[in-house]
Write a structure and sequence with these properties.
Elements (H helix, E strand, L loop, with lengths): L1 H9 L4 H14 L2 H14 L4 H13 L3 H14 L10
Length: 88
């Protein structure tokens, strides 16, 4: 985690660095921090389909289904082959 944070400190406007740290937070089960990281990546690159897709997974994990669906829709709009969560 420290390496990701240091990379962001050195290059704060790189959306990929925020995205990669968010992936780690998600894998650790810290969905709130993952959502923050994906959101920062999206703010730096509004066309970042994978960030929308993965933020959808994090929103789904915390039970925010409306926001998860919206992010999944946006991700697929940007890139129809991006991975998004499935909904019943």
């Amino acid at each position: 985690m420290a390496d990701y944070s240091e990379a962001i400190r050195l290059v704060p406007n790189d959306p990929t660095k925020h995205y990669n740290r968010a992936l780690l937070y998600h894998d650790m089960g810290d969905y709130g921090k993952a959502i923050e990281g994906y959101s920062k990546a999206i703010s730096l690159n509004p066309g970042f389909a994978k960030a929308y897709g993965n933020r959808a997974f994090s929103f789904k994990a915390v039970g925010d289904i409306p926001r998860a669906r919206e992010d999944a829709r946006k991700a697929l709009e940007l890139n129809p082959s991006v991975k998004v969560p499935q909904f019943d």
